[in-house]
Structures are given as C-alpha cells and as structure tokens.
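If it is no trouble, might I ask you for a protein's amino acid sequence along with its backbone structure tokens?
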Amino acid sequence: MAAEKFSASMDDALLADARADAEAEGLTLSSWLADAAADRLRLKALRQLVNDWEAEHGAISTAELDALENKVAAARRTAATRRSRSQMTDPSHQAAS
C-alpha cells in the first residue's frame, strides 16, 4: 500500500491523547490516525445505510433498537462463554501442576 505524507494540525490535548492511545495499542501515531479515519468513514457509510433504510421502511423504533441491543448483549454473553470454555480446555491456558 502506498502511503502519502501529509501535515495535520490539532489541539495539543487531543494530540497528546491520540499519541498516548496509539502507544498503548502498540501503533505508530500515523497508523492510529489512519485507523481513526477509516473508522470515521465506516461510520459515515453506516449512517447513510441507516438513512436509506429508514427512507424506504420508516424510522427505526425504540422497541426495535431495544431488541437489537438485547440480541447484541446475548451474542456477547455467548462469545464470552465460548472463550471461557475454550480457555478451560486449552492446555496453554491451564496452570502448571
């Protein structure tokens, strides 16, 4: 992937927070900023998708959002249970006897 150098300006406190988070994640500031830009573009595309869907089908109701949140929470619980079971059966995660 070709990379183009550029210069950007931002608030000192924001830059310090971005640098600290990049370091905590083991990323360069450039990689962190590229990831942030990609995230923002994905969110923009998702907003457009929702807007298009609502234009065709009507606004998403609070009840529909609540149901979706419940499904996401259930999926997270299932994933956590699977990870826990996997770690219990994985010898690399068991304490030495």
